[in-house]
Amino acid sequence: MSESLQLVTPPAAEPVSLGDFKELLRIARTDTSRDTTLTRFLVAARLDCENWCRIKLITQTWLARLDSFPGSSVVYDRNGYPEFKLPNPPFQSIQFFRYVDTQGAVQTLPRDSSYGNNVAGPLYYYQLERGGGVMPARVAPAWATPWAPQRRLFANTVLQFRCGFGGPLQVSMTAGSRVLSSPGFIFNPDDAPLLSAEVGTKVCIPGAGPLVGSVATDLSTHVASVDANGVATLADAAVGAVTNVQAWIGERVPEELKLSILFHAQFFYEQSAVVDLEVPCVVESLRSPYRNLVS
User: What is the mean pLDDT of residues 208-232?
Assistant: First the structure.
């Protein structure tokens, strides 16, 4: 099976801020004379971390192109389970899964969350196992059916998915409401096993929490449900109204990975260039526990 990956939506931010990098280097935050160079060092260190660990840090969207489904159903073939491991963990959601059928028409493959008990729907489904942490998610045909028949074409199967620990997102909320509004962004209402929504995704919204004195605090909560249009309802209501604030959706990037990026970028700074030398031991030690050894 041939596979190619294409970045659709890049990360909206870097896991390590330029200000934190300047503080490590003892450069004044107000000194902007080297910002371009320092930013390049940070990006290079982040990319090296992602490539070495084979994971993604900040939320991003990728498109996988396959020349076929991976094998046939284990029910009919003893040669192994026909699963496809999604690269670039941590996994967040599948946005679409499409293939070209034998008539040459593009079809969308639906997900079966009933584990083979849905006998009233279409014949062909996929099932999802989300993985966890840096363990990749897996997709396979629903029990007990094979993958759908396909026309033999290059890239006849495409799967677009969102990955990364979490990331920033512009959101709005009305005081007393639990509904999260974010133009252009939707949650996938059918991508979590045993659940009907991305229930449990962490959300932190500045200024929407309770007042402490006269200062509005952050609203730290999680997604409670998602409707058919991808609009999320949170477990807790906003205390104060916020408009187009930068929230954080999902998990935070582990501090060990952020430190590894900082120290690696510092190494580049000390060399005055992005150099292909042996990575300092502290960098490898910090990121080793987060290496994906599966996909």
Answer: 92
